[in-house]
Each structure stands twice: as C-alpha cells, then as structure tokens.
From TrEMBL:
It comes from the Bacteria. Gene3D superfamilies: Amidase signature (AS) domain. This is Glutamyl-tRNA(Gln) amidotransferase subunit A. It comes from Peptoniphilus koenoeneniae. The gene is gatA. It catalyses: L-glutamyl-tRNA(Gln) + L-glutamine + ATP + H2O = L-glutaminyl-tRNA(Gln) + L-glutamate + ADP + phosphate + H(+). InterPro entries: Amidase, Amidase_dom, AS_sf, GatA. One of its GO terms (molecular function) is glutaminyl-tRNA synthase (glutamine-hydrolyzing) activity. Residues 24-461 form the Amidase domain. Pfam families: Amidase (PF01425). Allows the formation of correctly charged Gln-tRNA(Gln) through the transamidation of misacylated Glu-tRNA(Gln) in organisms which lack glutaminyl-tRNA synthetase. The reaction takes place in the presence of glutamine and ATP through an activated gamma-phospho-Glu-tRNA(Gln). Heterotrimer of A, B and C subunits. Signal peptide: none annotated. Its EC number is 6.3.5.7. Belongs to the amidase family. GatA subfamily.
Amino acid sequence: MNLTELSLEQLCQGYRKKDFSVTEVTRAYIKNIEEKDGEINAYITKTNDLALKRAKELDEGNFDLPLYGIPLSLKDNISLKDVRMTCGSKMLENYISPYDSSVSKKVKEAGAVILGKTNMDEFAMGATTRSSYFGYTKNPLNTKLVPGGSSGGSAASVASNTALVSVGTDTGGSTRQPASYCGIVGIKPTYGSISRYGISTMANTFDSPGTMGHSVEDATSLLKILVGRDKLDATSLGNESIEKIDLKNLDETYLKNKKIAIPKIYMEMDLKENVMSEFERAIKKFQDLGGKVEIIDLPYLKYVIETYHILVNGEIAPNMARFDGLRFGHRTKEYGSIEEMYRKSRGEGFGKEVKKRIMIGTHILSLDLAEDYYYKALKVRGLIKRDMDMALKDHDFILSPTSPMLPFELESNMSSVEVYQADMFTIPANMAGCPSLSIPMPIKDGLSVGIELTGKRFEDDVIINCAHIFERSFK
Ligand code: GLN
C-alpha cells in the first residue's frame, strides 16, 4: 500500500483500524518530499522535525480529532508559530513568525501534521508562481509548465503527493487557478467564512483563504475545520452552510433541476486549446445529471480584469507600506538617512511585480487621479456585483472554465498583461464575495481543464454538493 496515495477518509479509517501509524504516514510523505521536491520546488520551508514530533504525539493521543494525522501544507503567507514565513519574498527571507494564524491554530488543534510552507508568487501577486524569490515551482503534471499561482506551491504539493491537502489564499483566483492547472480541486468559500488573522494581506476586501485536495471531499473536510467566526478578525462571519455539508449522505439526485447560468460573453470567447471543448463536455455532463442550463447576459463581466487591477493595487500599496525595514522585513546594510534606509530596503527587498503594483496603486490613489480611477473602479465593482447577484437570484450557480487557457511554458515570455487574462473567470467571485470552486475534468493529453462553479454568498453547500456529484459521475 502506498500511504501517500490514500484519500483523507481512507487515512482516517486506516488510523482507526491501526493499519498504520501517523509516524509511518508522515515518514512516507517526507520521503516523497525528499525524492520529488528538488525538482518540483513546491516547498519554501520544510518542517520535517516538527511534523515527526507532532506525529509521535498523535500516535500516543486522541483518534477523535477531525484531521487526525492528516499531512498538510500551508501557503507561505500564513503565519505558523516559530517557523519562517517569507511570502515568497526576499523582504521576509529571514522572518520567523512569532505567533500562529487562526488557520494554523485550527489545523493544529484538529490534529493535522504540517509538512511545510509552500512556494507562491511574491506576496501572492501573480498567476504563475514565477515571481517567487525562491525560484519557480514546476507543474507536477508536466514539469515544463507553470503550476499556476499565486498558490502554485500548494497546488503542486497536493498534485505531487507531497501533501494530502493544502491551505492557499485567493484574492483573484489564486486557489482555483493553480488547482485547475495542476488537475486538483480548489475551493474559495464565501468572503468572510474563514478568519484572515495572521495571513499576510494582499487586498483586504478580496482576500480569502481556500483549500485544495485531490477530491471535493478532501478539500471540503479541510474547509469545514477552517470556517468560523473569529474575534481576531472583525470581517470573519463563519459559514453554517459549510458546517452542515454531508457528502457521504448526499442524495444522488441533488443536481436534478438545479438552475445553471452561463454568461453569454464566455461562450463567445476564443478560448485556447481544448478549454472550450472540455467546457462543452462539462456542460453536457451537468445536463445529463439533471441540471438546467441557461445562457444569460452579464454585460459588466467584460470589465473585470481592468477593474480588479485598479482596486487591488489600490489596496496593495498601503498594505505593503509596513515592509519598510523598520517595522517588518529586510533592512539594507548601509544608509545615510532614514529616507535612504526606506528606499534602499524596499528597493532591495521587493521584486518587480510587487514594485509595479505599489507604484500603480500609489498613482491611482493620488489626490488628482483617485476620482478618475479608484472611485470609478469602485462603481464598476458595484455593477459587476449587481450582475452576479441578479444571475444568482434566478440560478443556483454560474458555470465557466476556471481559466481561459491551459498551463503555459515556464519559460514563456507572455507579457504580464497577457498573464492577467488567466484570472478573467475567477475574479468575479472575489469582486462579489461569492463562493467559487474549481474541479478538474479528467486528464486528457496529460493535462486537465478546470471547471468553475460560483454560487450565492453563504450557500457554499450548493456548489460543493453539485461539484461532488459531477466529480463522482466520472468515476
Ligand atoms: N493572479 C491574480 C493577481 O495577480 C490573483 C492573485 C491572488 O488571488 N492572490 O492578482
């Protein structure tokens, strides 16, 4: 039996029957990391010693914990006490987190074994995991290709069986898009379902932690542990719809007569490679399972990318101000004045994409331009949200591909504006705070096309249940 190929449920059962111990499973995962991660580079920091220590405690302890002995990885923008947190940046190369994020605290208490911190685009800005200071992560399905991003290390750790499940973050698609590129499941719940306390902020009104796994069931089991209101994050609300999910007892006919909306502009796009044909196959499958598909007009969706980048950069610029060599982060060696210290520390510590976004953000927030850019974009966000809410009033969920393209070559010289297109289908859910997930179509020619379901706020159970039935229908 290969212990690193068991599902979450199979691991739980095996532990209960004493087929294997947590230490054995942890050792099997560490062995996989040692064998594969030199090439894949999913991890920035491996926590082997902590993992084995925890495994030993669990072997002597309590089986009843909900994530008992589950091997898990955390994106490296999530604080884990006494472990380095880099956010993929030279700025935080040597930063050791002095406290646990609420997410880390919850997975620890639930009995998970944390194997390490995963690679990511610098400060979660990107869709390729190429902007990390710690090198590219490779796509385990094909090591010449990008794994997606920004949570590319998390997706690659699951896809290469060097973690069973992973926690990522999603500001404009960073959990769903890498999940789709690596052929796994990624779930971003309703905004506010999970506490963001202790997670490095990119854009406060968009950010959400998300979960990844090989199946809807695995990703959901982790999600259930993470949701909940937290007094340390005033924007966290919890989410009862996730707590009540029961995939084991889900009615086979759950999808019957569910109303599914597809935005008309998505059908008119010239999608790359076999994204369109696989999307059409997915539509047919939903119809075979009893879903009622309707093409609807959502005119404002065509502005999502431009609107997103104005708003997100407007939030990024002030959030990045704390990394100044004084409060947080890298400090330059030589400087004559405080101003020079700031300038050189930030100049040396941040990479190109981060600097670009800080500059754009600062520019569009300046007194003369805020009216033309930032406030205008806020209004368009309102219109996009209204479009989505109207579609979701009459439908159970919106269906689309997760990304308009397949993973591209690691060495590709696509411009950053071309890469921004990768998030065109994922951003609307962040704009409107809706739950959204990516589920892989079966592998074809070595790759999988991700299919995205986006639902009503605080009705995450609907998309998760439907995705579970969809996934099962291929087995
Ligand atoms: N790729 C998007 C961006 O570059 C989304 C990033 C994210 O969700 N963290 O902003």
